[in-house]
Amino acid sequence: MFFLYDLERTITLHPYYFGPHMREYLINKLLTDVEGTCTGRYYIICVLDAYNISMGKILPGSGLAEFTISYRAVVWRPFKGETVDGVVTAVSKLGFFANVGPLPVFVSTHLIPADVKFDPTSNPPQFSDNEGQVIEKGAHVRLKLVGTRSDVGKMSAIGSIKEDYLGFVIRPESTTRQLLTNHIDVCKWNNRILFVIRFVIPSHACSSITCCNTLPPSVSPPSSIISSHISQGS
């Protein structure tokens, strides 16, 4: 689950960076140090803004300056019972591993439906129900987290697909690409791009709607543009 957290970070800065661009250096170092890291309880996905930077404190004996930065960040904290999508990274007879973003998840055979069995003769290794559901390396799966484990700087989880609507899912980008290919045409009129959406009217011809955000409200494309994209249905 995603949250918006107010966090603090202490950063040390070399005297070389003291000057009018010191704030910029501090922000860049903050982004480099914290974005994409794991605290053991959650992942810091993105820093939105740094709303307070303390006065620098010179560290005795080194010349470095220490700053405390208060910042706001989007974090992802996985919870037990959360349903998530992941990509399979490895498959064995004991189960399979999947990455849910930065979180590694293991799904054992005890948490896989009985009709989805491991096929030892397949290459690459896979679980299959012989009805089109194939779980292999690179497959997209939907699973439920049944437990999480926190370590220093990392997390892991145990998942299950032994419930309704869990398991293999069609790759989202493939579905979107197919939708765009089958139902949207792109054409030009007066050097502007028009998107023509095709749809089927029951018991009649296939018709279309023309959408274009770049056209002024008072300007409409000529009917020839639309009529040229109307195809007869069966």
Describe the structure.
There is one protein chain. With 234 residues, the protein is mainly beta. It has helices at residues 22-34, 172-183, 223-227; strands spanning 2-13, 43-53, 57-58, 65-76, 83-92, 95-100, 103-108, 117-119, 126-128, 134-136, 140-151, 154-160, 167-169, 184-189, 192-200, 206-211. It has a five-stranded mixed β-barrel. Strands 1, 2, 3 and 4 form a four-stranded antiparallel sheet that branches. β3 and β4 (65-76) form a beta hairpin. The protein is elongated. The relative contact order is 0.12. The model is unreliable at 199-234 (pLDDT under 50).
Helix content: 10-25%
* Bulk shape: elongated
User: Any idea what the CATH architecture of the largest domain is?
Assistant: Beta Barrel
Strand order in space, largest sheet:
5-6-7-12-11
Report the radius of gyration as a whole number of Å.
27 Å
Write down the secondary-structure element order: EHEEEEEEEEEEEEHEEEH
CATH topology of the largest domain: OB fold (Dihydrolipoamide Acetyltransferase, E2P)
Average pLDDT across residues?
A: 79
Estimate what percentage of residues fall within beta strands.
over 45%
Largest sheet: 5 strands, mixed, barrel
- Poorly predicted residue ranges: 199-234
Tell me the name of the CATH class of the largest domain. Answer: Mainly Beta
Count of alpha/pi helices: 3
**What would you call the structural class?**
mainly beta
Termini Cα gap? 47 Å
Number of domains: 3
CATH superfamily of the largest domain: Nucleic acid-binding proteins
Give a count of the beta strands, DSSP E runs of length 2 or more. Answer: 16
